[in-house]
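Hey, sorry to bother you again with one of my protein questions. I've been staring at a protein lately and its backbone has me curious. I owe you a coffee for this, so here goes:
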Amino acid sequence: MNTATRFTPNRCALPAILGLSALAPAAFAHHPMGGATPETFTQGLLSGFGHPIIGIDHFAFLVVVALLSVTLSGRARYLVPAAFVVATVAGTLYHLGAADLPLTETVIALSVFGGGLAVLLKGSASALALAVLTGIAGVFHGYAYGESIIGAEATPLLSYLVGFSLIQYAIIVSGIKLVELIARRSEKLHGLAVRLGGLSTAAVGAVFLGLSLT
């Protein structure tokens, strides 16, 4: 009797995604530009790819957006993340305009903490309300992204904006797809994964909130 486990893409999808998610922060443990201002298109793109991942608070909020967006239906599930990404671009441009946005780090930490709690407590909101709330948070996250590109020329600036926009949307959509996959496999595992996501992101937010207030 053949007892070999049948190999299928779906069987391997979840472990693969989890493995890549675990390796992502380690792969970007150091900023692609070492803290220097990008000078070329490629440097700007790599810096844009790296910032939302190496910033634990930023990455945690991307997880929050994914977990909140997956509760929506239809196109709204993907339009809300798009609205958030657009807001981060606006926040970066606002920073580059030499404008001041007070309490940036505190608001970012609060967004992660509050978002994590909302996920943990199974909070629900309309697509419009969610787009507005994540959009406001996105302006602050984007403002923080702007710090890395101050003084850059137009070409690396443009590629930086493209880079962090693409990576943020890709991470959020990947998170949505992962949650959908888990839900199809096991409702119990789905509930556990969502609670774990809410708890872990709320914990990250609490830590950063404490740091911002000290």
Observations:
- The chain has a mean pLDDT of 86.
